[in-house]
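Hey, quick one: can you model this chain's 3D structure?
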Amino acid sequence: MAKKSKNKDFKKYLNFIIPAMIVILSVILFSSYQNNSSSITRGEEGEKSSLSLFEEDNSCKYNKGENCLNAPSKCVCKNNQICSPERIKSDNLGCYTIVCGDSYKDEGETSETCCIDAGCSNGLVCDANLNKCVKPECPFDCCINDLKYQNKFCSQYYTCDGHQHSCEPDDSDNDAFPDYLEIEMGTDRFDSDTDGDSVLDGYDNHPLHEYLPRIYSYDWRYGKEWLIFTKKFEFDISVSEDVVSSYEKMPKDKLISREDIQLKEVAQIMEQLANAEGYNDADKLMMVISFSRSFSYDYAKRDFDKPLPDWANFPMETIVKEEGLCADSAVMATALLREMGYDTYYLSGPCYDYSSYHAIVGIALVNGITLDGSERYATHNGKKYYYVDATSSDYGGNLFYSTTSKDDFGTTFCPMNEFIVRDNY
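Sure thing. Here's the predicted structure for all 425 residues.
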C-alpha cells in the first residue's frame, strides 16, 4: 500500500487551522472594539493627540513624577512662583507661590515685611495679629481687661475671643481661610469658593483658579454577559488635583452627608451604565456593590487606633485611591447609593467576637429582590435595613474584594448579628 504524502497531510492541516485562527482573531478584535466603544468617559478627557516617532513631547509629565526640579525645561514655574517640590502646598509641577505666614522664610521676607516667617531681633517678638515686631512685656495675644493681661484692641479682621483672651481672625465666609489671608492672597473673603471648583478656599491649594485635572479610570465586572463570562464595566472621570488634595485637609465630620459634586457625577455614570443594560433596582444596587468590591484593601490603615470618623475616607477619597478599609467601602457605597435614590445607612458591629468589628451597608428592600426569610437586617425607626456587604472575605476571614450577586442581599460574612445603624456621619 502506498504511503500518504506528509506534505499533503500538512497542507490539509494548514487548510483547517488557518481559517480557524482567522475566525478566532476576528472574534477577539471585534470583542475588543465593542468593549472600547461601550465605555463611558466623563469630564475633560485631556490631551489625547499622539506624537509621531520624530516629534518630541515637551509637556510636563507630572503624573509620572516630573517636576520643576528634575525636569526644569518642561515643568516651568510662573513668575510669582519658586521651584520647591518638597513644600506641602506646591502644585503638580513642584512650583510654590510664596505667601507670608506659610512658616517658610523666603527671599525678600524680613522682620519688617513678614515677621511671622522671618522672626524679630533686638528682643522683640512677632505679633501675628499685626505682623509687626513688638515689645514682649505687652502680651500680644490679649484683647480684654484682665489681671494677667493688659487691654488691647483687636486689629482689623480680628474679633476678641473672651474665653481664649485673644484676638481670633475673622472668617466672613466660613471657608477655613481667615479674612486677613484672603486679602493677602487675593481671594474673595465673602465667597467660600473663589474659583468655583467645589473646594473651600481654606482647603484649596490653588484657591484663585481650578487646577490641573487628572483622569481616573475604573473597570470591574458584574452579571453574566455570555455563557460563563461576566459583564465588564468601565468609565473615566476627571477630577481636579485641588479636589483630591482637599480630602486630606477637611475635618471628617460629614463623611456621608457632605455635598460632593464629583460623587454626584459618579452616581450619574452608574445610572447610565445600569440603564444601558436595562437593569432593575436590584441589579443596579449590586453593580455598585461590585464596584466597591473591586477596590484594594488598605493594609496601612488596618491597625489605625483612632475612632471613626477621624481616620475614614470621604466617599470620593476612597474612589480616587481605589482602596480602603471596610468602613471606607461602607461609607462610600452608602453615600453613592443615596445619590442614586436608595434608602441606605452605614452599619457597624462586632464580627467574630467583640474584639473585631466590621462595617457594612444597610438598605431597605428594593425591587427585584425576592426574600426567603434567611436575610439579616437591622431595624431603624421601625424599618428594616438589610445587610449588604461592600467587602467580601475568604474562608479565613480575611477581607478581599470581588464580584457579587443578588444572593448577597441580606448577608455578611460576619457570624455575629449585632450590627446597628450609625446615622451621625
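One thing worth noting: Residues 213-422 form a domain with the C8orf32 fold fold (CATH 3.10.620).
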